[in-house]
Specification:
Layout (H helix, E strand, L loop, with lengths): L3 E6 L14 E2 L2 E2 L5 H11 L7 H6 L1 H9 L13 E6 L7 H8 L20 H11 L5 E5 L2 H15 L3 E4 L4 E7 H22 L4 E10 L3 E4 L4 E4 L7 H7 L4 E4 L2 H4 L7 E3 L3 H14 L5 E6 L1 H7 L4 H20 L6 E5 L18 E6 L4 E7 L1 H11 L14 H8 L1
Parallel strand pairs: 1-13, 1-14, 4-16, 5-6, 7-8, 11-12, 11-13
Antiparallel strand pairs: 2-3, 4-15, 6-7, 8-9, 8-10, 14-15
Helix pairs in contact: 1-12, 5-7, 10-12, 11-12
Length: 408
């Protein structure tokens, strides 16, 4: 019985989307952003070509050329997978919009975003957070890098007990607190308590950002992050698969993004730990299962921090690992590699970029599937698993005849 592995490389875009000019980092439009293409070019300038042979074999270079015209990853080696380009129709360039649409639910409304001012939050929100905790106020109240703001305000937080609250270009409220002095469970309860009022105002997520450390040794975030996302307005891929009595595994922050809707089991950790979970599930997941994984560190550790070399190294590590995963797929399995948005480390600002994404498929022939909508990914997964679903999208695994033509 077939299984499906849907793996999202968070932030790995392959060139500006047709509507990129409507999205900005500061005052700079995202037109011309190209996460993968610019990383490849940066490595060439250092005479250190990016080594990602397994994803190239699945068609990543061909997808990059189709999306942006870049020939930086062209190869003479034969392509062994299906490959194409994904374009988002949702109004945002954030994680939640991208994942929801990949799961078959385009986001038709505009999320609420906070201005890049100081303070960033309206009084009602600042007062609601402080009231939930019982403090006189909050710290931060601005757009910020999570790692930088805990270094700046960590000691004051420990001293006063006031939470560190910040946002970004995403529709998000992030609340950081010390796991020991403030308490992890207390932080989670605060975020859970404030989430409904934020969701009412179309704020997509409230994120708990726990950290540890002290003023002398420094403060570092822990893996115990938890996202409180707006509840889904209708069923998505995970719900349809679960309703068909097939098991759904969430690897990484998938469970949080989908508010645990349609999720049977969650595996969390660093990207290295998540890869171990994915490898184990390739060996052990039941017939008919969906494994839905997100690898966040491309985005969180390297894209937002504009770390080109770190991003390149992460891509090479991921390529080596995913090559091992592909070789362990069963004959009826498919593995789909894609992304949710871009996060070009060479671009202006520190936020996501509105980009097209790769769609690479192992296990179902080889050739081009063209330019697709994000929701076509969900339609293809339910098609492969034989699940009935009401999903806005068209499967690119349409028929044995078409796949045979692609193979020839």
């Amino acid at each position: 019985m077939p299984r499906a592995f849907l793996v999202v490389m968070d932030g790995v875009g392959i060139g500006g989307a047709p509507d990129a000019g409507q999205f900005f980092n500061g005052i700079i439009p995202d037109t011309g952003a190209n996460t993968l293409g610019h990383i490849v070019e940066a490595r060439f300038r250092l005479s250190r070509p990016l080594k990602i042979p397994n994803m190239l074999a699945l068609g990543l270079g061909a997808a990059l050329k189709t999306a942006s015209g870049s020939e930086a990853l062209e190869t003479t080696e034969p392509i062994s997978g299906l490959w194409g380009v994904g374009r988002e129709t949702s109004c945002g360039k954030d994680t939640q919009s991208g994942h929801w649409e990949l799961a078959g639910l385009p986001v038709a409304w505009n999320w609420h975003y906070f201005p890049n001012t100081n303070p960033a939050f309206p009084d009602w929100l600042s007062q609601a957070i402080a009231g939930e905790i019982g403090t006189a106020g909050i710290l931060g109240n601005c757009h910020a890098s999570g790692t930088e703001i805990i270094e700046q305000l960590g000691a004051e937080h420990v001293r006063t007990g006031q939470p560190i609250c910040y946002t970004s270009a995403d529709s998000v409220v992030q609340i950081a607190a010390h796991e020991q002095t403030f308490g992890l469970h207390r932080l989670l309860d605060v975020c859970k308590g404030i989430a409904p009022v934020c969701h009412h105002h179309k704020v997509g997520r409230v994120i708990a950002r726990p950290f540890v450390g002290d003023e002398t040794s420094g403060f570092v975030r822990t893996p115990n992050r938890k996202d409180f996302a707006m509840p889904l307005p209708k069923p998505v891929l995970t719900d349809w698969v679960q309703a068909a009595h097939k098991r759904v595994y969430a690897v990484g922050k998938i469970g949080d993004i989908f508010s645990m809707s349609g999720i049977d089991q969650v595996c969390k950790g660093s990207d290295v730990e998540l890869m171990s979970h994915l490898e184990q599930l390739v060996d052990e997941a039941e017939d008919g299962a969906l494994v839905f994984a997100n690898f966040i560190e491309f985005d969180s550790l390297f894209g937002h921090r504009r770390d080109v070399e770190g991003f390149a190294n992460a891509l090479e590590w991921f390529d080596r690992c995913i090559g091992h995963v592909v070789t362990r797929l069963r004959s009826e399995d498919i593995l789909i590699l894609t992304a949710d948005h871009g996060n070009d480390p060479t671009w202006a600002g520190t936020d996501h970029t509105r980009e097209q994404v790769p769609i690479l498929v192992a296990g179902r022939g080889r050739g081009s599937i063209g330019v697709r909508r994000f929701s076509d990914v969900a339609a293809s997964v339910v098609h492969h698993l034989g699940v009935n679903a009401e999903i806005e999208g068209e499967s690119f695994l349409t028929s044995k005849v078409k796949l045979q033509e692609l193979q020839n």
